[in-house]
């Protein structure tokens, strides 16, 4: 017998954030009051509620001066399901970046745009302009459902891709906040013109007595307290992992019949990237297969998953508040039992799927209706103009001339589509003139790498990411050439902190900021982001990049199997073998016949200790011994 779940009374003890949401009057205060004040920034309570409206308060750390007020500015993030950006909205964002921002746009790893450098006095103007031009920032941040992702592949002759985009929009409508606060604060109560909500979505927002929808209040699904933490969803098609589906709280996989008609969805749940250094109870996690659901029941199932996390997720310890911890603590069986109670019927078994592969959709493609689409690589997602690359100018010219819709990708690139073949040559000419590198000439490391913005504006950043990754890729490429792997493709991702915005735990080679100019190194993920990496080394000084990676790449070249990727190799041989090889490896630079080398003997016990230390640090024994001897000699000379 299916019963309505009883919500846990343990939620009586709540964190400060929960009390703040309760006092906010459905996300109105203190933002509504403080936006009217002649100040440069919001209070601590204000900036927390501001996140729900799609903005983060930041300060430029490069401009900090002791004794002076911080250089406060605001980042705005768009909410655009499936990565869809109209030409009108793109040109508006480009203009706002010029007039009110830092003259750049930042494509995100959740298929949105970020606008940086907005001052508090201009925040209302900028948000209002975005909304009036077919955009929104509502729910792009905060403790609720974020931007819903879908493959950025505008095929018109492949119905599964059409369904993925369609249902990404429907799920976004189902889980969007319903409070009137957004329009009251930013548009003085003026409701923007929006497309009509799908009737099935509207019906799903009505109470059915099973505890998923509240009958009272402004928020039918979220209630007074919204979600315990952020909540992330995607919709994809079998075999297409252009959206990092295993990193999501909820992933829906379109299931069609032989005629291409939609039958339902496979459902995965419990993924997430964020963690905290030295807090082993926090960790990255892959989503678990949960069930299959018929298309007519998909909204009820999504509501049931949201309600399970809403009512049973941890509202005391925010580090333990994501749904991945609920799945980890309960297990899939108990989670599914609770889910069935909210859903009101038994769950159906998960259907077989093909292996998932990463796809980036760069370059020119036939979209299936006589028109074309073009994927453009954006290094680290930054749309800007430099002396050698005028990407912002190129996109502006193309949009002004052709008014093309675009889809942003999960690898912070973009796809222009609905392109008439007659426009191809002119678009190519604009891109070439502006220095945009065609896909066939892209460096493979750059093509498959990602970085979060980090310094100077992200308040969580421990060290650099976006600003240094291009030079890091150059140094890695030089090492690969030195060991005889000049054309190797490796998925590289870097973040300035462990929160995982660029999903480094799904990279073959991940750099996670751990201290100033030092990174935790993660290895062993699948190149298709279907397996997590693992921590290989702590606090690698960025100056030690070459001596850390050269032995790894050398061993990879010598011992790889045919067609094996770097991540698969590291996973197969194991970290013990990697560390042993690195401990005895002699860098090419140390093998020069013109360089003098001397032998010294040590006892067996010292040798064993030296070997263990070298393996633990992933460094050559010679290097560790030299460092130890130099330190000892310095002590002797100073005494």
Core attributes:
single chain, 639 residues, alpha+beta, five-stranded antiparallel sheet, 33% helix, 15% strand, disordered N terminus
Structural class: alpha+beta
Unreliable residue stretches: 1-6, 590-596
Strand content bin = 15-25%
Helix proportion range: 25-40%
Helix run count: 20
**Overall pLDDT metric:** 94
Largest sheet: 5 strands, antiparallel
Rg, alpha carbons: 26 Å
- Net shape: globular
Distance between the termini: 81 Å
Number of strands: 19
Query: Taking strands numbered 1, 2, ... along the chain, how are they ordered across the largest sheet?
Result: 1-2-5-4-12
Structure commentary:
By secondary structure, this protein is of the alpha+beta class. Helix content is 33%, strand content 15%. The chain is globular, with a radius of gyration of 26 Å. It has 20 helices and 19 strands. A hairpin with a 5-residue loop joins strand 4 and strand 5. The strands form 4 sheets. A 5-stranded antiparallel β-sheet has the order 1-2-5-4-12. The chain has a 5-stranded antiparallel β-sheet with strand order 3-13-14-11-10. Strands 15-16-17-18-19 form a 5-stranded mixed β-sheet. The longest helix is centred in the last third of the chain and has 18 residues.
Short précis:
The protein is of the alpha+beta class and 639 residues long. It is 33% helix and 15% strand. The chain has 20 helices and 19 strands.
How is this fold's topology laid out?
Elements: H1 16-23, H2 31-34, H3 44-50, E1 55-59, E2 72-77, E3 84-85, H4 87-99, E4 105-107, E5 113-118, H5 123-132, H6 159-175, H7 181-186, H8 199-204, E6 233-236, E7 250-256, E8 262-269, E9 288-294, H9 298-312, H10 323-330, H11 332-343, E10 363-366, E11 372-376, E12 382-383, H12 391-402, E13 406-408, E14 414-419, H13 424-433, H14 444-447, E15 449-451, H15 469-482, E16 492-495, E17 509-515, E18 518-523, E19 534-541, H16 545-559, H17 566-573, H18 575-584, H19 604-617, H20 621-638
Parallel strand pairs: 6-7, 15-16, 16-17
Antiparallel strand pairs: 1-2, 2-5, 3-13, 4-5, 4-12, 7-8, 8-9, 10-11, 11-14, 13-14, 17-18, 18-19
Helix pairs in contact: 4-12, 9-11, 10-11, 12-13, 15-16, 18-19, 19-20
């Amino acid at each position: 017998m299916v019963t309505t779940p009883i919500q846990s009374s343990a939620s009586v003890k709540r964190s400060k954030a929960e009390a703040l949401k309760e006092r906010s009057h459905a996300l109105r205060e203190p933002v509504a009051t403080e936006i009217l004040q002649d100040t440069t920034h919001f209070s601590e309570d204000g900036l927390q509620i501001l996140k729900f409206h799609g903005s983060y308060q930041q300060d430029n750390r490069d401009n900090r001066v002791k004794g002076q007020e911080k250089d406060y500015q605001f980042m705005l993030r768009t909410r655009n399901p499936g990565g869809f950006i109209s030409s009108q909205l793109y040109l508006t964002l480009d203009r706002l970046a010029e007039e009110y921002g830092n003259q750049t746009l930042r494509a995100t790893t959740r298929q949105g745009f970020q606008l940086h450098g907005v001052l508090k006095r201009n925040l209302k103007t900028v948000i209002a302009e975005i909304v009036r031009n077919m955009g929104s920032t509502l729910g792009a941040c905060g403790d609720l459902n974020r931007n819903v992702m879908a493959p950025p592949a505008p095929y018109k002759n492949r119905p599964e891709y059409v369904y993925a985009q369609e249902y990404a929009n429907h799920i976004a409508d189902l889980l969007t906040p319903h409070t009137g606060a957004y329009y009251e604060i930013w548009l003085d109560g003026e409701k923007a013109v929006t497309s009509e909500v799908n009737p099935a979505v509207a019906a799903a927002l009505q109470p059915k007595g099973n505890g998923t929808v509240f009958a009272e209040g402004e928020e039918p699904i979220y209630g007074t307290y919204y979600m315990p933490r952020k909540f992330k969803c995607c919709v994809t098609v079998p075999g297409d992992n252009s959206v990092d589906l295993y990193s999501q709280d909820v992933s829906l996989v379109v299931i069609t019949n032989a005629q291409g008609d939609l039958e339902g969805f496979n459902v995965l749940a419990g993924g997430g990237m964020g963690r905290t250094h030295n807090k082993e109870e926090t960790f990255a996690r892959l989503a678990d297969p949960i069930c299959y659901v018929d298309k007519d029941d998909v909204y009820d199932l999504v509501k049931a998953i949201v309600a399970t996390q809403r009512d049973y997720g941890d509202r005391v310890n925010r580090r333990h508040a994501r749904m991945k911890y609920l799945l980890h603590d309960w297990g899939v069986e108990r989670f599914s039992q609770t889910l069935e109670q909210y859903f009101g019927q038994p769950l159906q078994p998960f259907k077989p799927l093909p292996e998932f592969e990463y796809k980036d959709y760069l370059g020119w493609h036939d979209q299936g209706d006589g028109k074309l689409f073009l994927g453009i690589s954006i290094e680290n997602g930054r749309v800007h103009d430099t002396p050698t690359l005028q990407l912002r100018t190129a996109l502006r010219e193309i949009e002004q001339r052709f008014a093309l819709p675009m889809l942003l990708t999960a690898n912070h690139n973009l796809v222009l589509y609905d392109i008439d073949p007659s426009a191809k040559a002119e678009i190519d000419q604009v891109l070439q003139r502006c220095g945009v590198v065609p896909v066939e000439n892209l460096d493979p490391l750059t093509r498959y790498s990602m970085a979060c913005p980090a310094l100077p504006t992200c308040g969580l950043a421990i060290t650099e990411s976006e600003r240094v990754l291009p030079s890091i890729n150059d140094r890695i490429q030089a090492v690969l050439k030195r060991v005889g792997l000049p054309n190797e493709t490796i998925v590289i991702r870097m973040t300035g902190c462990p929160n995982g915005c660029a999903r480094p735990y799904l990279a073959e080679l991940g750099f996670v900021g751990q201290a100033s100019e030092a990174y935790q190194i993660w290895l062993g993920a699948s190149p298709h982001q279907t397996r997590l990496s693992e921590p290989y080394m702590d606090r690698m000084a960025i100056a030690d990049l070459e001596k850390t990676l050269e032995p790894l790449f050398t061993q990879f070249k010598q011992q790889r199997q045919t067609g094996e990727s770097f991540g698969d190799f590291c996973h197969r041989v194991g970290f013990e073998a990697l560390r042993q090889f690195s401990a005895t490896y002699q860098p090419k630079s140390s093998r020069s016949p013109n360089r003098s080398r001397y032998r010294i003997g040590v006892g067996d016990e010292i040798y064993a200790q030296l070997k263990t230390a070298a393996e633990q640090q992933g460094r050559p024994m010679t290097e560790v011994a030299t460092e130890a001897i130099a330190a000892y000699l310095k002590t002797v000379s100073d005494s």
